[in-house]
Amino acid sequence: MIVSDPFGALGPAKSASLGLGKAVEALNTLGSSMTNLNLSSGFVPRAATKGNIISILAFEVANTIVKGATLMQSLSKENIEHLKEVGLPLEGVQCLVSKDMEDLLRIAAADKREELKIFSSEVVRFGNRCKDPQWHNLHRYFEKMGIEVVTQKQLKGRSRSSDAAIDDHGPVYS
């Protein structure tokens, strides 16, 4: 699956500032290089003899594939146009977040970059568990592309801080 250029809707100057190009490039590269993830391709966990671990990893891989596909779809030209024309102009968004469309686009782009970081970290983790060494150290590839890879420890820390923020603001959402 190849993501079409989502920048026709945003214009070349804005798309560069939003950093969505790197996300599209990374997802397209991953999608085209990981077309054959079967047992013969070497994409097998090290603990292949433990059925429970493989079952859990299979669900994790499936969830990561869905996450990547969803991210790619969200970066399509049609979805970005829909966001700009329908989602961001909503009165609730304008009142709660910002009336400035540039700010809203920056927030949306930052959110997509964060999704890409999390997706990339999951791909790196699975790559490091492969028998075939060609999939090891994918974090170096992402670093060359300018994508920060988030470690599991960082994800847990972010999760705890997000939970704390939600607890602090709980009465606002009640």
Automatic annotation (TrEMBL):
<dbReference type="Pfam" id="PF11961">
    <property type="entry name" value="DUF3475"/>
</dbReference>
<protein>
    <recommendedName>
        <fullName>DUF3475 domain-containing protein</fullName>
    </recommendedName>
</protein>
<feature type="domain" description="DUF3475">
    <location>
        <begin position="56"/>
        <end position="112"/>
    </location>
</feature>
<dbReference type="InterPro" id="IPR021864">
    <property type="entry name" value="DUF3475"/>
</dbReference>
<dbReference type="InterPro" id="IPR045021">
    <property type="entry name" value="PSI1/2/3"/>
</dbReference>
<dbReference type="GO" id="GO:0045927">
    <property type="term" value="P:positive regulation of growth"/>
</dbReference>
